[in-house]
Amino acid sequence: MVAPEDSDLGLTPQNRAEIRDKGRWLRRVVNPFVDFYVIMAIGAAGSPTTSEAAQSHEDRNIRDLTKDMSTIQLKIYAEDFTQITGSLPFLKNRLESNEASRVIRKITHRAQSIADQGKQSDTKNIKYGIILLIPKKYFPPGDDGDTAINVHKSIHVDNPNSSKAWRGWANPATSRLLCPVEYIAQFKANPEDTREKLMQGELPLTDNIGDPKFPSFLYDEDTLDGSFAKGLLRGPVLLAVYTSIFISPSGATGAKASSKRGNARIHGMTKVIPSTICYAAIHTYIALCCRREWGEEWKGVKLPRLYILLREQFAHPDDPWCVDTLKWWNEKVFEASTELDKGLSEGARDTEGPSMRERLDNERRERMIAGGS
User: Looking at the record, which segments are called Disordered (predicted)?
Assistant: First the structure.
């Protein structure tokens, strides 16, 4: 029996099944901070594969949103548009038919409500399990991670509402992982003093234009050489969070493999794509800081800007960093999962020096020049 609302929207039983089955997956592969209708409108306007009819859905408000966007940012919207229409092909057909924006908005709202359920589930699971995903080396000398086990027990067994007190600046390990990578040598040399300066905003978490400074959990600290690209998006905690979301929680902790299929297998994902890495990075940040739930800001760090800044690093597929990083991720995630199957003060900014985006762009240009010589 078709619900009256479905009849009004022209949704068939197959359409409803696609929304139900694919909806929870979509937040993991598109920008988790942006309304689906906005993605559809901007993406349709910028995608070379859509017709003029589909592109006509870009109304005046959407044009206002896009007027200051870079070419790279518009490309990201086009990629996300492709992800949504690839998962819900009937939706693209409705766009092509030049259907009323009101109907398209209602359909995308329904898909988004289901997608957000998947995101909220990931937030809860990672937040309560993050302490066990942190390697022992990040804990203070002599601790060897024993505190992690005790904290995990107190959170899950004794007092489930206490998790906030054991994350963020309150925990030496989470503090170190949240510390911007440019301060990490200082943190290692004097952790308590550095942690205090971070809490008081003496060491800013954002750059001169308000973009977040990259936290150290994004990096493989063993490979740091002073550049912002070396080791970026190869941090062990980030990898563990990614594995927990897309492969299985047991794969992230090394526990006995579960018979339950992971999200990647359920949805036919056979390779790592940039948006999923960035999605896991935001979940890692939220789990490490003391937010109780998904949100857009912590201590002046705007997480939507962090997400976009990370996505932008993959905008040049021929960049050696991009090629090597995706190769590394696919080896770590899918080759490892095959083996597993077998058995601050608000708003404080650093007003001096170039922004994170400028630094990363400069390093990319140098890599591209070196690669072409």
Answer: 342-373
Examine the pLDDT at 367 and tell me if it is beyond 50.
yes
Residue 246 has pLDDT above 90, yes or no: yes
Over the chain, what HEC string results? CCCHHHHHHCCCHHHHHHHHHHHHHHCCCCCCCCCHHHHHHHHHHHCCCCCHHHHCCCCHHHHHHHCCCCHHHHHHHHHHHHHHHHHCHHHHHHHHCCCCHHHHHHHHHHHHHHHHHHHHHHHHHHHHHHHHHCCHHHCCCCCCCHHHHHHHHHHHHHCHHHHHHHCHHHCHHHHHHHCEHHHHHHHHHCHHHHHHHHHHCCCCCECCCCCECCEHHHECHHHCCCCCCCCECCCHHHHHHHHHHHCCHHHHHCCCCCCCCCHHHHCCCCCCCHHHHHHHHHHHHHHHCCCCCCCCEECCEEHHHHHHHHHHCCCCCCCHHHHHHHHHHHHHHHHHHHHHHHCCCCCCECCCCCCHHHHHHHHHHHHHHHHHC
Report the chain's C-alpha Rg in angstroms. Answer: 21
Residue 286, pLDDT score: 96
The rounded distance, in Å, linking the Cα atoms of 60 and 340 is 50
Query: So where are the chain's domains?
Result: 4-115, 134-372
Please provide the distance, in angstroms rounded to a whole number, between the alpha carbons at the two ends of the chain: 65
Nearest-angstrom CA–CA distance, 144 and 122 = 27
How large is the average pLDDT for residues 107-117? 94
- The token duo for 17 is 């099944």
Lowest mean pLDDT among 9-13, 116-120, 297-301, 345-349: 345-349
What is the SS3 assignment for 148-201? HHHHHHHHHHHCHHHHHHHCHHHCHHHHHHHCEHHHHHHHHHCHHHHHHHHHHC
For residue 253, is pLDDT > 70? no
